[in-house]
């Protein structure tokens, strides 16, 4: 069995993050900025500017997520942290908006907002492994709860929308549905 390890994404791990995301920045050059800035701002940035934005965020700290490794090589990423760190995830127009608006600014209410698994490592249970690492990181960081807004079903395992994760992965980790604002996109929560 492959040896899996996961670590918070600190500046010292930037090279591994960059390696995992590749030259184009994963998910059409997003560099995991989708929930971090308004669409109007994000759309005018090229890939290099988005990359610089996330690099600055990582250098500023605290870690914006967790990197997963197999046999010492970076293979998975999960963006996890306080809801306030991903302001677009809290927008009143999104299916991921908090039940209580105060949760958007509560440093103890966390969100799992994005996943990226390297193509060679998909369909091997690595979403479960990196989510477990995210839960551990949130708990160790003092989070009171952690929320997600995954897809209930995807047409294929390669569906781009799976960057938010699969409902079955969250269910297996103990998350429960707390709201459904759109068919197929439950808001789920795990209390600590």
From TrEMBL:
The keyword Acyltransferase applies. InterPro entries: Acyl_CoA_acyltransferase, GNAT_dom. One of its GO terms (molecular function) is acyltransferase activity. Gene3D superfamilies: 3.40.630.30. Residues 7-192 form the N-acetyltransferase domain. The keyword Nucleus does not apply. Its EC number is 2.3.1.-. It is an enzyme of class 2 (transferase). Keywords: Acyltransferase, Transferase. This is GNAT family N-acetyltransferase. It comes from Neorhizobium phenanthreniclasticum.
């Amino acid at each position: 069995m492959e040896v899996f390890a996961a670590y918070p994404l600190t500046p010292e791990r930037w090279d591994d993050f960059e390696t995992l995301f590749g030259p184009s920045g994963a998910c059409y050059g997003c560099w995991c900025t989708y929930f971090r800035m308004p669409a109007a701002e994000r759309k005018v940035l090229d890939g290099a500017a988005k990359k610089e934005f996330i690099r600055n965020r990582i250098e500023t700290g605290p870690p914006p997520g967790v990197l997963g490794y197999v046999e010492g090589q970076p293979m998975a990423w999960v963006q996890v942290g306080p809801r306030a760190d991903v302001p677009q995830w809290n927008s009143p127009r999104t299916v991921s908006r908090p039940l209580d608006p105060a949760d958007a600014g509560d440093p103890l209410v966390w969100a799992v907002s994005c996943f990226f698994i390297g193509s060679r490592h998909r369909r091997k249970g690595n979403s479960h492994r990196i989510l477990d690492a995210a839960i551990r990181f949130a708990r160790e960081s003092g989070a009171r709860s952690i929320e997600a807004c995954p897809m209930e079903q995807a047409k294929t395992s390669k569906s781009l929308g799976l960057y938010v994760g699969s409902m079955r992965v969250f269910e297996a980790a103990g998350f429960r549905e707390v709201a459904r604002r759109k068919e197929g996109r439950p808001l789920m929560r795990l209390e600590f």
